[in-house]
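Allow me, if you will, to draw on your knowledge of protein folds for a short while. Thank you for your consideration; the sequence and its tokens are set out here:
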Amino acid sequence: MTRTPEHPKPAWVNFIAAIALIFGAMTLFSGGSVLFIDGQARADAGNYVPFILWFNFITGFFYMAAGMGILCWQKWGLTLSRIILVATLIAFIGLAGHITTGGNFEMRTVIAMALRSFVWLAIALVTGAAWNKSMQDHAST
């Protein structure tokens, strides 16, 4: 459903959208620095896990798309947020498998994946609650 005057977006949802957009930009910058620039960022990355690095870099574009969808108060922004959450949890499980089979990793990767999971859980839950409230408010008018 597209936003209409009957389905107003709460003003604070702009803050949630900004978080998604900033998180996406930071993810693209940090991941791109390691993937595409042979320099200090790659050296500092240590024992990075390639499939997690690529996953995070690619999803950075989706973070930004979800942020724009939420900012424009489009239902697909919420749907994409939920898809990002599920994909992140699946990647996190893959990281756990990599670690338990003796793969090299950095603890900061585990922490970063936990943070990503938490952020997208929060975005999906808060945006979903706001969307549902907006639809209920419209239905009661």
Q: What stands out?
A: The chain has one domain: 13-139. Residues 13-139 form one domain. The radius of gyration is 17 Å.
